[in-house]
Amino acid sequence: MSAFDTLKAQIGRRSFLKMAAVATAASVTNSFANDGITRAATQEEVKNPFPGSKHVKSICTACSVGCGVIAEVQNGVWVRQDVAQDHPISLGGHCAKGSDMIDMVRSDVRLKYPMVKRAGKWKRISWDNALDEISTKLENLRQTAGPDSTMFLGSAKFGTEQSYYYRKFAAMFGTNNIDHQARI
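and the corresponding structure tokens:
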């Protein structure tokens, strides 16, 4: 039974139709109430919506392919992006993840610095403290439970060289437990 059928069974057909009519009326009247709030963009705004911005050639980091991105930056903030038409890898194309990179960068929920939860509250810590805590916990785990108590998961963002170093790190740690995150 779909969610629609469940809702219909709970409230009855007549009540459902009344609520649908009210919602439609509210939507129509809302569209009239918003008249005049927005305006059409001027030709100059259409041509150049971010005056004073600069274009920076970069590489998409969604995976290890390395497609070309041209980021438009205004006052140090990434405001818009386009595909790099002359990029030798992507040849002017993007996947869905690559076209969404700007939204990942501008997200309000994106983690921008190391955090640790202490006494039930999240606290910002320095990168040095974060690396020290992680390495201490890893070393304690290796000493108490052995190196095979861990598993290292690679990522689609890894290039060939990064994968090589990551595998070497796992071997140095003393384990062969390494896999790719896509298999989990």
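(Above: one complete record from the training split.) The radius of gyration is 26 Å.
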